[in-house]
């Protein structure tokens, strides 16, 4: 029994111990791991967390140099500063113990190429290498190589290149490898750093495939044989040979043949040289042959009547046999026969027979004149100004058809109006008079004979009128540059000359005869000259007006305001003195004006003694029975003390004002506010208002 009890007691103690172990656990930090290095960038935000477990849950904080910088698991920097660099410790604490883990912040530094690429020149077929190095923090730099802006590995060069970080090697370079190579270095922070260099590949000359290998020259003609090459560096000399015999070396790529003869035929070869080497021989075959010839000539001029048939044949020979055809007005007739069943007016003109082969192309002209028809079109129409309202029109006559022709000029101004014309004349010129100035005219010439008329094409010409020069250039008080309007002008151009400039320069183009000067632009410039020109496109510009000079001072706007204030004050003082002098004269006749004033107030029925207003007749509910005052003598209402006091006050005020304050201002008030016989009578309140206005004006005058 006792042993069983002891056994149960041990089992319970073990269970209690296991339960206690499950309920209590020391802190353990999972993030950050020990130790941790973090790179940050100055001026940017940064945030990190500390994760820890334990039973009971631990309290987490961050410390730096033994001082708490965060009382929770999150360490936050809104903007990294220089003082934020260093070691931070995450501390997790509970009742069973504590745990620590450190985090070190270092400032990052973007990659910066400290060993830049340099330009290189290599010979075709050799190897070339570039070296690039960048300094960064962290130092794990990734290098990328580019050719003409494209990754090297994506181009044909990548098959012959060897890249190891900042080292780039290119084997067996070709002339096509010439170009820009770029090293781009980055560590993941900031903008990648780049360095660029140019690779120039030298190679011996190479004759271009576009060169011709056969040249054919006509006997007696001149020509050029080309030997165009591709070389780097440039070609220094080209050696020519003919049939194996060396000719004089030429510095250029051309061989000139003058007045070719049969002896110039043969096999030519060229070889180009530069500082690297020479090109292979390039052979060119030159053939000199006689040009085609006309075997059956035809006359250069032919006259034929309208309606008649025409047949002209053209024959030629050559080696190789030439192609024969006719051409008229750039239109080709693929036949050696020029045949027209019935010649008409429009068949008049120039024809060409052409013989063409690989040696040369020769031509022969035929001028065909059609007779017994209306004249051909006049041509070469010219118009020259004769003054400002007339034109001299000249022209070349066409063929007259075998009959006498006369001419007439038709003209019409734009926009289209009535068409005018000159009289028929034998002259090949005419004068057009009384034209509208600044107007464009359409002109054509009519040629006439007994078979009819023919009109020329239309020519256009403007009357050479001259714009008047703007006059009366001035600057007004509002700082506006103004001038007289020119009747025909559509716009005006203003130019200026500053004191420091020797010439005028254009300032602005305006449509109205004025321009507002910008005082801030010209302040302190001193004497500035202005002149104006009239404009009317397309007739050009007038002459410059006579210049005017305007002085722009250094005076500030506050000084101008002060000046206006002083002038205004003097003006006010002058007005006050004038009013006082006038008031003195006015006081001499105050008695007389007082009588007029009383008479004006009272009307025709006012006696010599003052009157008072009768009290308002009031109804039982206090309203007025009528809206006008009734005047009565003092004997009638001697017992009405209230009315008497009221009237005495007003009368005394009016009398005092007449005697002591009668001025120009008061006189103006009487004329404006005091009523006469034909005016509506004022009530007492209105009279009091008038009295107050008079007193206020009197005080303002003083």
Shape: flat
Helix content: 10-25%
As residue ranges, the low-confidence spans are 590-680
Number of helices, where a helix is a run of at least 4 consecutive DSSP H or I residues: 7
Q: Got a strand count?
A: 53
Could you tell me the radius of gyration in angstroms?
57 Å
The biggest sheet, with number of strands, parallel, antiparallel or mixed sense and barrel status, is:
6 strands, mixed
Percent of residues in β-strands: 35-45%
Termini, distance in Å?
133 Å
Mean pLDDT level: 81
User: What structural class do you assign from the helix and strand content?
Assistant: alpha+beta
Count of structural domains: 7
Domain Ig-like: 27-106, 111-195, 205-289, 292-367
InterPro entries: FN3_dom, FN3_sf, Ig-like_dom, Ig-like_dom_sf, Ig-like_fold, Ig_sub, Ig_sub2, Neural/epithelial_adhesion
Domain Fibronectin type-III: 377-472
Keywords: Disulfide bond, Immunoglobulin domain, Membrane, Repeat, Signal, Transmembrane, Transmembrane helix
Describe the structure.
- Helices cover 17% and strands 41% of the residues.
- It is an alpha+beta fold.
- Strand 35 (349-356) and strand 36 form a beta hairpin.
- The protein is flat and about 165 Å long.
- Residues 590-680 have low confidence and may be disordered.
- It holds the Pfam family Ig_3.
- The chain crosses the membrane at residues 560-583.
């Amino acid at each position: 029994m006792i042993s069983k009890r002891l056994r149960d007691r041990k089992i319970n103690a073990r269970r209690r111990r296991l339960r206690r172990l499950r309920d209590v656990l020391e802190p353990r930090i999972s993030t950050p791991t020990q130790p941790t290095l973090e790179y940050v960038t100055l001026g940017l935000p940064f945030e990190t967390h500390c994760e820890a477990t334990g039973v009971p849950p631990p309290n987490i904080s961050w410390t730096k140099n033994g001082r708490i910088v965060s009382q929770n698991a999150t360490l936050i920097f809104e903007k990294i500063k220089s003082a934020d660099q260093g070691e931070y410790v995450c501390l997790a604490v509970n009742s069973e113990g504590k745990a620590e883990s450190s985090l070190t912040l270092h400032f990052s530094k973007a990659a910066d190429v400290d060993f830049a690429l340099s330009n290189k020149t290599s010979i075709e077929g050799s190897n070339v290498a570039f070296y690039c190095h960048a300094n960064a923090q962290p130092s794990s730099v990734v290098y990328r190589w580019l050719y003409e802006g494209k990754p090297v590995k994506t181009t044909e060069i990548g098959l012959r290149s060897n890249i190891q970080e900042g080292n780039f090697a290119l084997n067996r370079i070709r002339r096509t490898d010439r170009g820009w190579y770029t090293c781009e270095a980055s560590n993941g922070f900031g903008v990648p750093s780049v360095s660029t260099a140019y690779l120039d590949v030298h190679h011996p000359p190479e004759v271009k495939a576009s060169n011709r290998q056969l040249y054919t020259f006509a006997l007696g003609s001149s020509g050029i044989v080309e030997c165009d090459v591709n070389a780097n560096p440039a070609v220094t000399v080209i050696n020519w040979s003919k049939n194996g015999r060396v000719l004089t070396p030429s510095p250029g790529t051309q061989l000139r043949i003058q007045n070719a003869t049969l002896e110039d035929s043969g096999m030519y070869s060229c070889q180009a040289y530069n500082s690297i080497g020479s090109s292979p021989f390039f052979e060119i075959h030159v053939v000199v042959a006689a040009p085609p010839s006309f075997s059956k000539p035809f006359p250069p001029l032919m006259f034929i009547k309208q309606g008649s048939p025409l047949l002209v044949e053209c024959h030629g020979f050559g080696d190789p046999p030439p192609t024969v055809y006719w051409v008229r007005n750039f239109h080709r007739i693929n036949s050696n026969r020029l045949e027209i069943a019935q010649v008409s007016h429009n068949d008049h003109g120039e024809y060409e027979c052409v013989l063409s082969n690989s040696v040369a192309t020769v031509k022969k002209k035929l001028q065909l004149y059609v007779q017994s028809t209306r004249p051909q079109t006049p041509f070469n129409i010219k118009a020259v100004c004769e003054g400002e309202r007339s034109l001299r029109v000249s022209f070349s006559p066409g063929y007259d058809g075998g009959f006498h022709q006369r001419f007439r000029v038709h003209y019409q101004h734009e926009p289209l109006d009535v068409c005018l014309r000159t009289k028929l004349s034998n002259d090949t010129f005419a004068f057009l008079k009384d034209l509208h100035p600044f107007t464009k005219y359409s002109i054509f010439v009519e040629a006439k004979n007994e078979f009819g008329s023919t009109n020329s094409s239309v020519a256009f010409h403007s009357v050479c009128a001259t714009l008047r020069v703007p006059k009366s250039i001035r600057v007004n008080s509002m700082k506006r540059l103004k001038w007289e309007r020119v009747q025909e002008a559509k716009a005006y151009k203003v130019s200026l000359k500053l004191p420091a400039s020797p010439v005028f320069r254009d300032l602005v183009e305006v449509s109205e005869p004025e321009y507002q000067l910008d005082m801030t632009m010209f302040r302190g410039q001193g004497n500035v000259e202005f002149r104006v020109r009239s404009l009317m496109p397309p007739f050009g510009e007038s002459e410059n007006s006579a210049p005017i000079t305007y002085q722009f001072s250094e005076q500030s706007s506050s000084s101008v305001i002060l000046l206006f204030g002083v002038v205004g004050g003097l003006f006010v003082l002058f007005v006050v003195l004038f009013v006082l002098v006038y008031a003195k004269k006015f006081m001499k006749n105050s008695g007389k004006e007082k009588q007029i004033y009383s008479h004006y107030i009272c009307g025709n029925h006012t006696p010599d003694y003052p009157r008072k207003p009768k009290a308002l007749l009031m109804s039982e509910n206090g309203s007025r029975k009528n809206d006008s005052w009734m005047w009565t003598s003092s004997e009638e209402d001697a017992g009405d003390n209230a009315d008497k006091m009221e009237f005495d006050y007003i009368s005394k005020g009016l009398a005092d004002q007449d005697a002591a304050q009668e001025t120009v201002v008061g006189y103006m008030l009487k004329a404006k506010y005091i009523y006469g016989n034909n005016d509506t009578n004022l009530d007492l309140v209105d009279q009091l208002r008038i009295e107050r206005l008079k007193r206020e004006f009197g005080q303002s005058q003083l």
